[in-house]
Write a structure and sequence with these properties.
Number of helices: 5
Number of domains: 2
Helix content: 25-40%
Strand content: 15-25%
Number of strands: 4
Strand order of the largest sheet: 1-2
Radius of gyration: 24 Å
Distance between the termini: 37 Å
Shape: elongated
């Protein structure tokens, strides 16, 4: 099966809202609310304020994290580990013998408090589900 035939199931022919030109757009982009314009030029001229600076390419967009917050996060986790020890058993699924990156300290309130009652031990899988 060629790549062209494979992607035909995922694309839809749509019409540009600005210039009425027909173009192919991915279905998942339409679900996200994109795919209204055939190009960035049409998008800019159709909107009253044009392209907003800072929007950038969504594929390469990253939220910058200040260095202070990373240092704070590491200090807090080191403090919790110093006082409560290294976790070996998940409090949710009860898996035992977990070490390294397979077991984490998770904040119950998700506010990263300097309170030992606010922390619980979760395996990586349960932590991902807990944080949602």
């Amino acid at each position: 099966m060629s790549m062209k035939k494979l992607w035909q199931n995922y694309t839809v022919e749509t019409i540009c809202l600005h210039c009425d030109k027909k173009f192919q757009c991915f279905v998942h982009n339409l679900r996200k609310g994109f795919g209204k314009y055939c190009s960035k030029a049409c998008s800019n001229s159709a909107k009253p304020r044009g392209f907003q600076k800072g929007h950038g390419n969504l594929r390469n967009r990253r939220t910058p994290i200040p260095a202070r917050s990373i240092i704070y996060y590491q200090r807090l986790h080191n403090w919790v580990e110093k006082h409560l020890g290294k976790p070996e058993k998940c409090w949710h699924c009860k898996k035992d013998g977990l070490v390294g990156r397979k077991i984490h300290w998770a904040s119950k309130s998700r506010r990263y408090k300097w309170d030992l009652k606010d922390w619980l031990r979760l395996c990586a899988k349960c932590h991902a589900k807990y944080d949602g």
